[in-house]
């Protein structure tokens, strides 16, 4: 599953301001530091101790929902999520999902007459992004994705949260039943996760 959270340059500044405002509320109410890396697979189940404290389960769920709600309701913020129909081969599934993301973003950007650059979570060692970019040759995505650690980017953390909610809406893992509706409820403008 890959997800993209994007905005125009003008809308990005407003979203970043609101995101940091939300994170400041989390600090005041729950002790979660503003600079704590929001990684959905750790934060939602309660792994890790942001600020040395682990908020109660219901509080973590509400915080994640509030972040998704901010993403989903912010004007000018666009969400795209894709997943793969390839099974049994994790690397092929990842490549197929990323290819789907590039193709979908290229279509969306062409429709809006825009261009974009992608940033993905990584340390610069993953060759997949460059290889898939070369294969797809998206006209509107100007270069292969730049890899940056997620703790450096609120956009990557927002996309991670969206990807996790999208994954749960598709995979419907029984132990995450409470999340099955999060994607559709908190991201109402987003298309259903696309399958490639």
Short structural summary:
50% of the residues lie in helices and 10% in strands. The chain is mainly α and 196 residues long. It has one domain (1-196).
User: Largest beta sheet, briefly?
Assistant: 3 strands, mixed
SS-derived structural category: mainly alpha
Question: SSE order in H/E notation?
Answer: EHHHEHEHEHHE
Q: C-alpha Rg, in Å?
A: 16 Å
Strand content: 5-15%
Number of strands: 5
* Order of the strands making up the biggest sheet: 1-2-5
Instruction: Give helix % range.
Output: 40-55%
What is the general shape? Answer: globular
Number of domains: 1
N-to-C CA distance? 10 Å
Number of helices: 7
Low-confidence residue ranges = none
Mean pLDDT: 94
Please characterize this protein's 3D structure.
- The chain has 196 residues and is mainly α.
- It has one domain (1-196).
- Helices cover 50% and strands 10% of the residues.
- It is built from seven helices and five strands, in the order βαααβαβαβααβ.
- The strands form two sheets. It has a three-stranded mixed β-sheet with strand order 1-2-5.
- Helix 1 (9-30) runs antiparallel to helix 3 and helix 4 packs across helix 5.
- The longest helix has 23 residues, at 90-112.
- It is globular, with a radius of gyration of 16 Å.
Spell out the key features of this protein:
single chain, mainly alpha, three-stranded mixed beta sheet, two-stranded parallel ribbon, 7 helices
């Amino acid at each position: 599953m890959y997800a993209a959270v994007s905005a125009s340059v003008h809308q990005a500044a407003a979203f970043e301001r609101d995101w940091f405002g939300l994170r400041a509320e989390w600090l005041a109410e729950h002790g979660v530091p503003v600079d704590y890396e929001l990684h959905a697979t750790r934060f939602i189940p309660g792994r890790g101790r942001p600020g040395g404290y682990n908020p109660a389960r219901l509080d973590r769920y509400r915080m994640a929902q509030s972040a998704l709600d901010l993403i989903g309701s912010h004007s000018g913020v666009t969400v795209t999520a894709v997943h793969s129909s390839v099974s049994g081969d994790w690397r092929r599934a990842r490549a197929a999902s990323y290819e789907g993301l590039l193709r979908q973003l290229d279509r969306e950007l062409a429709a809006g007459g825009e261009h974009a650059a992608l940033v993905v979570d990584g340390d610069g060692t993953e060759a997949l992004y460059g290889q898939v970019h070369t294969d797809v040759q998206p006209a509107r995505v100007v270069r292969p994705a730049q890899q940056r650690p997620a703790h450096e980017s609120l956009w990557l953390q927002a996309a991670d949260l969206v990807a996790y909610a999208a994954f749960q809406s598709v995979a419907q893992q029984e132990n995450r039943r409470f999340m099955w509706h999060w994607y559709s409820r908190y991201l109402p403008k987003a298309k259903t996760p696309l399958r490639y």
